[in-house]
Amino acid sequence: MSTRLATGGRRLNRDAGVRFSFNGQSLKGVEGDTLASALLANDQMLVGRSFKYHRPRGIVAAGPEEPNALVNLGQDAAFEPNQRATTTELFDGLTATSQNHWPSLEFDVGAINAKLSRFMPAGFYYKMFIHPRPLWKHVYEPFIRQAAGLGKAPKGRDGDTYEHFYAHCDVLVVGGGIAGLTAAKAAADSGARVLIVEQTAHWGGRAPVDGGTVDGLPVDKVVDDLVSALRDMDNVTMRLRMMGAGVYDHGYVLGYERLTDHAPDLDGPRHRLWRIRAGHTITATGAIERPLSFAGNDVPGVMLAGAVRDYVVDYGVSVGDRTVVVTNNDDAYRTAIALNAAGLSVPVILDARVPSVDSPLMAQAKAAGIRVMMGHGVAKVLGGKRVTGVAVCAQAGEGAVLEEIACDAVAMSGGWSPVVHLWSHCGGKLVWDTQFAMFRPDVDKSPLGADGAPFVSAAGAANGHFGLAEILGDAHAMGQGAARRTGHTPAKSAAPAGDSIEEAPMLPVWLMPQGASRALRSKAWLDYQNDVKVSDVQLAAQEGFESVEHAKRYTTLGMATDQGKLSNINGLAILSDALNQPIPQTGTTTFRPPYTPISMGAIGGEARGDVFQPIRRTPMHNWHDQNGADWEPVGQWRRPYAYVRAGESTHDAVMRETRNVRENLGLLDASTLGKLVVKGPDAGKFLDMLYTNMMSTLKPGKCRYGLMCDENGFLIDDGVVARIDDQTFLCHTTTGGAERIHGHMEEWLQTEWWDWQVYVANVTEQYAQVAVVGPNARKALEALGGMDVSREGLGFMEWADGTLGGFDVRAYRISFSGELSYEIAVRASEGQAFWDALMAVGADLGVMPYGTEALHILRAEKGFIMIGDETDGTVIPQDLGLHWALSKKKDDYLGKRAHLRSHMADPERWKLVGLETLDGSTLPDGAYAVAQGTNANGQRNMQGRVTSSYHSPNLNKGIAMGLVLHGPDRMGEVIDFPGTDGTVYKARIVSPVFYDPDGEKQNV
Fold it and tell me: How far is CA 442 from CA 426, 433, 485, in A?
């Protein structure tokens, strides 16, 4: 029976009792307990029910690989489902309830599914929920909805807060065991900035549990000394309760830190999501013990041998008075020895290895009086809701029961698998290790950075080393190597000398007993949470699902919340056996981040409530606000619509600003325009595919206006592209398009052109940008002084770096107004100061700020299109008369083939024209032009629509742009636009360029 031992419990403060509740029952634990260890100490073996068959489930593991002990935690605003008891630290007042049962944990009517298991084999839902179709809506769908999911969705608003954190380091070490600490120390001794993270609340990992010596000192003392030394180093940051969730390209790592889960009364955010940029990453993530597959291996009380050892040593908990150990390797002998030393009974060690082997650990167990049966295994576990005994059989026999042994726990070990998830996230390859029957990192095929050098290393058990001496040597070498790769000189030091007990070779046994009948094997479980049996995988192979990815989805093997941490290798082995092929040929399923689930709150961070979509402000926002800005939302940004002075209307302000730009000098805050850096050897080729016109031929120092279509040929954005150097371009986008176009670029890079050497960075907020516009624009910049902005020094559609008024700037000679115009980019931190400097030198030049409405009028006077006005998702460049921007030199670009469709080339498509009313009034925005006749619905036929309409103070009349049937061929024709109030506006079709048609003013 589970109980608290008088000895052991190195993580406990036995003087501090903790009260908690499970399913409404008040229980007592100890400070330092996990919820799992406390439940076991209270003899709570049954903790939940499986998903499919609702079978009784008990705790199997001691870490994040736990598949069974998922509970609901907290109440009301603090409620959270599907939390692992094994990683939940106990605190006073913790409330937990079990999941996936009704009406109670002990009596669950869903267990009837187990009786119907023969009718619900792997993939039954693919066959069952198809015919007859009339049953789908009222029978199948409600059934599926009722059965889907684990736990209950929270109903109340989350009462906690969360945050995001950004960090940079030379070396990131993920894993705070003996390997991670050793690697971190080796890297830190070189002077490198080191960040080391550990997902649990304790440093040292398994080493203090398993024991051993390093340089003559006990390993737990060595761990303490390493932690103390690292804490004293200024170049080292150490974080507990923080997981490495995912490793991505270019040294980007996602970290997940739990700050107050263990102490809800603490102030501050509950979880923190770290975005880490590391020069080199070392994954010292250890290894996970594999279960063995035998009949009844899911009965509560059957646990991993390493977990049983953890509960005894770390928490002083016995999972049973009599524990049978079943194994195919030496490591489980450590558990038997630990149990024996704690005064607990180990009736027998069932070792599957044939022929018999010998090792120091085996000899130590025998010397302690523990019975060892070589070549034997478990035919069946006895018991239902808890273990009562095991039936023993010969491993290589026919499954005949030789004897039954009474026990209340089974400790099983099928060997250890390196935690290769983070290594694999960023493209690291794996190799099959025959000796230890495991996949380990293939160091010859490690992920490479942009410089061609590895940016991720694995160390210790994560790299396939299990002896203490080998772990320390490997970790020390990896730490020094990481320092060297980040430009630091490793300190001249030898690896710590750890002892290492020589272990006998393990036997790659996945299924016990091999000769058992199919009936027994059908009850051998692989995926505990999803109820996937050995026979399910064999059935998948029989039905043609030979790909490991197909078999995974057909059986749901490894698709539970533990992501197959315990089941995958055994499942691969069973599939390989069924296909009569070696495991490496079968391969592995894809490892995807995050390593373990992270909270939705952490992903959202502060994006909730009023800041779900935070208002974005430019560096000059406060100045605009203090000077009469009438704010307009543009995406998440706030931009001044106009600067309204005392005694004038908003319309009057717009008219004043528009005139002033044409006559004197206007300043526009253009900081909101998207700025995307596209860099790499294939950057030109990439932009040629994204833009309709050619970008790869653009010379450094030059700019080019570009159009961007989606794959269906419709316009999605436009802007000026500047070539910075041979491999670098800066692409300007519309204000509302920066994130959207950045995502568009990344989608194509990651899904279609993943092998192109291109990197895209959104630098929109890193720069403030000011448009200096009007006849006096050049005079203003010359007054600041510092660089040549003459027509000859900086021609139209050119850019140059330099200084203006003491500010480092990048000056673009581009115009969206048709006037002499420059756009000047400065560091965001200097945006306000630069704006002030321009206002000062412009005081004698008639300077005025102008807003977005004046911007629109100015561009409409010139016939320049605006994405979102002249486009609505159905418009192509040809509709707007932009044939000149469609390259005929390129074989392909996004949208080119779509433009060949009959509908796109239809001569009946509406085309862009200018519109002006006969009486000088302003056309209503969005008004439709009517034609003769009616359609089939009795509605009047339409022949065009207004896309944008303004009153021009410079032309003293209303002007508009619109799409009209055969518009360019109908110049001078008058058409009718009915208004919503019954007024009919008569407008003449004219050129869309109303002002300075030859472009003389912008080229002065």
Answer: 13, 10, 19
- For strands 759-762 and 728-733, give the pairing: unpaired
Alpha helices (runs of H) in 389-533, residue ranges in sequence order: 421-425, 468-485, 518-521
Domain 162-288+418-485 has CATH 3.50.50.60: yes
Strand partners, 719: 706
Partners of 944 in the beta sheet? 929, 964
Using the Cα atoms of residue 489, residue 491, residue 494 and residue 496 in order, give the sign of their dihedral: negative
Question: Residue 14 corresponds to which tokens in the numbers above?
Answer: 């036995």
Q: 807-812 and 821-827: which strand pairing?
A: antiparallel
Please, are residues 717 and 737 in contact by the beta-carbon 8 Å criterion? yes
Both structure tokens of 898: 């779509």
Residues of the chain with pLDDT under 70: 111, 113-120, 124-130, 137, 143-144, 146-147, 396-399, 450, 502, 510-522
Strand partners, 705: 720
**Beta carbons within 8 Å of 280's beta carbon, 6+ residues apart:** 170, 171, 172, 251, 454, 455, 456, 457, 482, 485, 486
β-pair partners for 804? 807
Global pTM value: 0.80
Give exposure, 925-963, as e/b (b: 16+ Cβ within 10 Å).
eebbbbeeeeeeeeeeeebbbbbbbbbbbbeeebbbbbb
CA-wise closest residue to 510 among 500, 518, 521, 499:
521
Task: Give the side-chain half-sphere CA count within 13 A for 532.
Answer: 31
Tokens of 753: 């052109």
Q: Is 745 helix (H, G, I), strand (E, B) or coil?
A: helix
Give dist(CA 335, CA 341) in Å, integer.
Answer: 10
pLDDT of amino acid 399 = 66
pLDDT (tens digit per residue) in 704-717: 999 999 999 999 99
Beta-ladder partners of 633: 638
Domains 162-288+418-485 and 907-1003 share a fold: no
Integer distance in angstroms from the first to the last C-alpha of the chain?
93
Distance of CA 47 to the CA centre of its chain: 31
3-state secondary structure 320-370: CCEEEEEECCCHHHHHHHHHHHCCCECCCEEECCCCCCCCHHHHHHHHCCC
CA–CA separation, 414 vs 331, rounded Å? Answer: 10
Q: How many CB atoms lie within 10 A of CB 746?
A: 12
pLDDT tens, residue by residue, 95-122 = 999 998 889 888 877 767 666 666 567 7
Alpha helices of 372-420 — where are they, by DSSP H? none
The DSSP-derived string for 561-608 is TTTTTTTHHHHHHHHHHHHTS-HHHH--PPP-S-SS---HHHHHTT-S
Q: How far is CA 505 from CA 333, 434, 435, 455, 545, in A?
A: 14, 10, 7, 33, 33
Q: Map out the domains of the chain as residue ranges.
A: 162-288+418-485, 616-864, 907-1003
Q: In CATH, what number does 616-864 get? A: 3.30.1360.120
Q: Length of the chain in residues, anyone?
A: 1004
Tokens of 828: 């965001």
Say which DSSP state 691 is in. B
The three-point CA angle 963-987-819 to 5° equals: 70
Tokens 């076991």 sit on residue? 40
| Burial grade of 558 (CB within 10 A; 0-12, 13-18, 19 or more) | buried
Please tell me the CATH superfamily of domain 907-1003, with its number: Aminomethyltransferase beta-barrel domains (2.40.30.110)
Q: CA–CA separation, 78 vs 45, rounded Å?
A: 26
Q: Which residues contact 532 (CB under 8 A, 6 or more apart)?
A: 122, 525, 526, 555, 556, 557, 567, 571
> Which among 673, 683, 740, 685 has a CA at the least distance from the CA of 710?
740
Tell me the C-alpha distance between 168 and 141, whole Å: 49
